[in-house]
Specification:
The chain is α/β, with parallel strands linked by helices. The chain folds into three domains: 236 residues, no CATH class; 133 residues, no CATH class; 69 residues, no CATH class. The protein is 34% helix and 13% strand. It is built from 16 helices and 13 strands. A nine-stranded mixed sheet has the order 5-4-2-1-6-3-7-8-9, sandwiched between helices. A two-stranded parallel sheet has the order 10-11. A two-stranded antiparallel ribbon has the order 12-13. Strand 4 and strand 5 form a beta hairpin. Helix 7 packs across helix 9. The longest helix has 19 residues. The N and C termini lie far apart (83 Å). 25% of the residues are buried. Pfam families: HET. This is Heterokaryon incompatibility protein-domain-containing protein. InterPro entries: HET, HetReg/Transcr_Mod.
C-alpha cells in the first residue's frame, strides 16, 4: 500500500494543519487531512482556529498509523495515543503536531518550520499538553479541579484546605514522574501558549488550576507523607514547573545562555534541539544569525561550537560572557559517552557543568581602574580558541587544589572547613612573609552538596590532606 506523500508548502510562511476526523469510538482508526495555511492569516482568523499539541515523542519506532487523504502515515506510539485521546466525538479538530505537520525527511523544510515554531505556538488558540496515558488516580485528580466535571467531590475540602490521602499522593507522584516535564521543547511550547490545557488520557483541564493543584499537594508532601513524592525526580519536576510558571508570568527576557544554563541535560531526541528548542523564547541580538540559525545540516559539534562562540562574543557586564568557559563537563561521564567537542565548548546534553561548583561571579575589581567594552577579539582555528592579552606575571609554583565538592558529602562540610581554616591560620602565623596580608585566603569559602562518598573519593580526600600537610611541613 502506498504511503502518504507530502505536497510542498505553498508559501514561505505556510504551515500544515491536521484536520482530524471525529469518531464516537475511541479506538476507531485515525483519519484526517492535511491543509496548507499561511501563519499570518491564521493569527487573524476567528473561525478556522487551530490547537497546537505539546507531547513527548518517545520511542521513534512507528507502530501506529493515520489515514491522510486515504493514504497511511506512520505514527509513534505516543502520538498515536495522543490523537486517539484528543479526538472529538462529533466535530473535526484542527491540530498542529510537529511529527505530522512537518516533513521530517526534508531538511530544508524542517529548518524553516522549526524556526517558526515559536510563532506557531503563540498563534494557536489553544495548546494541549498531553502527559500520556490514563491512570485512575490522575484522572480523578484532574476531574476534581473542575467542579462541573467532578464525580468525586470538590478539590478543596470543607475547611478550604488541600485534601490528602492515598489517591492524591498516588496522583501527584504519577504526574511529577511524567516524561513531559523533562523534555527540551515543552518549555518554549508552554511559555508561548495563549491558553494551555493539560490532558492525561481523555481527562483535560486548564494549566493554571492544574499547576495550583500540583503545588498545593507538593506542599503537603514536604511534610513527608509520601516517600515517592520526595524522590529526586519529583523534586526536579517541581523546580521545572516553578521555572515554567515564572517564565509565563514574568515579563523579563532571558538570554540563550541563561536558558541553556537552567535547562542543560533536558531530554531531546536530537541533541541539536537543546539549542533550537529555546530560540523562540531567547532574547537574541540582531547579530546572532551567523552563529545559531536553525540548520539541521550542521553536526552537533559544529552547532555547539557556534553557540559557544556566540556567547563569548556577546557583550556582557562583569565579564559575564566568559562564564560559558565554566560550563564544561565536570564530574562523572555517563557510561559509553563519546564527544568530539573542544575542551572549551560546553556539552549541553549533560546536566552538570563546572558552574555547579563555581558560585561566584566573574568580576573586575573596581580598584584596578579597568574600563573597557568587555568585548574580546576571540580567534578560532579548528577546535582552538584564542584571544589577545597582556602578560602580568608568571607563576612560580602551584599549590594543592582545594578538593572538589563531589568528594565530600554535606555531613562532613563543617569538620572539613573547620580543620582547613585552622590549617590556613597556622600557615599564616608560621609564614607571614608569604604576603597574605591581614586575612588568610578564603579557602574554606566553598559550597558543598550531599553526594555520598565512594571508596575512590575517600582516597582522593586523603591524598588532598597529605598535600596540605606537605605545605605545613615546608612552611
Amino acid at each position: 500500500e502506498k504511503m502518504y506523500t507530502y505536497q510542498p508548502l505553498a508559501n514561505p510562511t505556510s504551515i500544515r494543519l491536521l484536520c482530524l476526523a471525529s469518531s464516537v469510538k475511541h479506538d476507531a482508526p485515525l483519519r484526517g487531512t492535511l491543509v496548507d495555511a499561511k501563519l499570518e492569516d491564521l493569527s487573524d482568523d476567528l473561525i478556522d482556529t487551530y490547537t497546537a499539541l505539546s507531547y513527548v515523542w518517545g520511542d521513534p519506532v512507528r507502530v501506529g498509523e493515520i489515514l491522510l487523504d486515504g493514504q497511511p502515515f506512520g505514527l509513534t506510539a505516543s502520538l498515536r495515543d495522543a490523537l486517539h485521546d484528543i479526538r472529538d466525538e462529533a466535530r473535526e479538530f484542527r491540530i498542529w503536531a510537529d511529527a505530522i505537520c512537518i516533513n521530517q525527511d526534508d531538511v530544508t523544510e524542517r529548518n524553516k518550520q522549526v524556526a517558526m515554531m515559536g510563532r506557531i505556538y503563540s498563534n494557536a488558540t489553544h495548546t494541549i499538553i498531553y502527559l500520556g496515558a490514563f491512570t485512575t488516580a490522575v484522572a480523578k485528580a484532574l476531574d476534581m479541579i473542575d467542579p462541573r466535571k467532578s464525580r468525586h467531590g470538590p478539590y478543596r475540602n470543607s475547611a478550604g484546605g488541600v485534601p490528602t490521602g492515598p489517591m492524591w499522593e498516588e496522583a501527584l507522584s504519577d504526574i511529577l514522574n511524567r516524561e513531559w516535564f523533562r523534555r527540551v521543547w515543552v518549555f518554549q511550547e508552554l511559555v508561548l501558549s495563549r491558553d494551555p490545557w493539560v490532558q492525561v488520557g481523555i481527562s483535560r483541564v486548564r494549566w493554571d488550576p492544574f499547576r495550583e493543584l500540583v503545588f498545593d499537594l507538593h506542599k503537603m508532601a514536604s511534610d513527608g507523607f509520601n516517600a515517592g513524592i520526595r524522590a529526586e525526580s519529583s523534586k526536579s519536576a517541581i523546580h521545572i514547573l516553578e521555572d515554567m510558571h515564572k517564565a509565563r508570568t514574568d515579563d523579563s527576557s532571558r538570554s540563550l545562555f541563561q536558558l541553556l544554563q537552567a535547562r542543560r541535560g533536558m531530554g531531546a531526541t536530537d541533541p541539536r534541539d537543546i539549542i533550537f528548542g529555546h530560540l523562540g523564547i531567547a532574547s537574541l541580538p540582531p547579530g546572532h544569525r551567523p552563529y545559531i540559525e536553525v540548520d539541521y545540516s550542521k553536526s552537533v559539534m559544529e552547532l555547539y561550537v557556534s553557540v559557544a562562540l556566540y556567547i563569548l562574543k556577546t557583550p556582557g557586564r562583569n565579564l559575564g560572557s566568559l562564564a560559558v568557559l565554566f560550563e564544561q563537563l565536570h564530574g562523572p561521564v555517563p557510561p559509553n559517552w563519546t564527544t568530539a567537542l573542544p575542551s572549551w565548548v560546553p556539552d549541553w546534553r549533560l546536566p552538570q557543568g563546572l558552574h555547579s561548583g563555581f558560585h561566584g561571579k566573574l568580576q573586575i575589581a573596581p580598584e584596578v581602574g579597568f574600563e573597557a567594552s568587555l568585548q574580546y577579539p576571540w580567534a578560532t582555528s579548528s577546535s582552538r580558541l584564542g584571544t589577545a592579552g597582556y602578560l602580568i606575571d608568571k607563576l612560580k609554583a602551584l599549590g594543592p587544589v582545594v578538593p572538589s565538592e563531589s568528594v565530600f558529602p554535606l555531613a562532613r562540610r563543617r569538620d572539613y572547613q573547620m580543620n582547613l581554616s585552622t590549617t590556613v591560620k597556622f600557615i599564616h602565623q608560621a609564614a607571614p612573609h608569604r604576603g597574605w596580608g591581614d586575612s588568610p585566603p578564603s579557602l574554606t569559602d566553598i559550597k558543598l552538596i550531599p553526594i555520598p562518598s565512594t571508596h575512590d573519593e575517600y582516597g582522593a580526600f586523603l591524598k588532598e590532606c597529605q598535600s596540605w600537610l606537605g605545605v605545613v611541613d615546608h612552611a
